[in-house]
Specification:
Oligomer: single chain
Number of strands: 4
Distance between the termini: 76 Å
Order of helices and strands: HHHHEEEHE
Helix content: 25-40%
Largest sheet: 4 strands, antiparallel
Radius of gyration: 30 Å
Structural class: alpha+beta
Shape: rod-shaped
């Protein structure tokens, strides 16, 4: 009788020890695989959200102070280029040499962040022109957009063409062509959608 009791107690202790081992193993496994604020996916999402917010703020500020419109109008109609040379017609090493470009470079360039800037225009914004091309965006790239209305009497800002209006290019009274055709009505030339794509290098 005492042997059976001893045996029963031994089995109970063994079961209790096994349960403790299983619980300890599960606890260790859960701690090893738990998602923490420092996990790669959480950290990447935070960085992407931050980059999107910064890009949106940059576009909003640049639109409010006129820098964004000035960048859209920095076009040489004779050579048909944003740059000082004919090819490529867009900037590859950073933003254009104006206030908008300086803001882009100061905001993203110092953070090892690449960016492309696209201008969509025409009916339904179906046409696209590159302002900045720094390469192919990664899978984690984020996008920010802003619409700017250009009027017929807007002057180009490219050196040597500051007295040329979009109306003059449209009606042929000035030599050369603008990258976007007159797609507006009345005094509006076109509604341009500026899109910045940002990604970490």
């Amino acid at each position: 009788m005492f042997r059976d009791e001893d045996r029963a107690q031994a089995h109970t202790l063994e079961a209790f020890a096994a349960a403790i081992l299983i619980v300890a193993g599960l606890t260790f496994a859960l701690q090893a695989t738990a998602v923490t604020p420092l996990s790669a996916s959480t950290s990447n999402q935070h960085l992407e959200n931050q980059q999107r917010a910064v890009a949106n703020d940059l576009l909003e500020t640049s639109a409010a102070n006129g820098d964004l419109e000035a960048a859209l109008l920095r076009w040489d109609p004779v050579n048909e280029t944003f740059t000082d040379s004919r090819s490529p017609s867009y900037f590859t090493g950073g933003g254009p040499p104006n206030a908008f470009g300086e803001t882009l470079n100061a905001t993203f360039g110092e953070r090892r962040t690449a960016f492309n800037v696209y201008i969509r225009h025409g009916p339904g914004n179906e046409d696209q022109t590159l302002l900045v091309n720094m390469g192919s965006p990664s899978d984690n790239a984020v996008t920010a957009t802003r619409t700017i209305v250009l009027t017929d009497d807007a002057n180009l800002t490219a050196p040597g063409h500051e007295n040329t209006t979009l109306r003059a290019l449209s009606d042929g009274s000035a030599s050369g062509e603008f990258y976007a055709v007159d797609a507006g009505s009345g005094a509006i030339y076109d509604r341009m959608e500026v899109r910045i794509v940002v990604w970490q290098l």
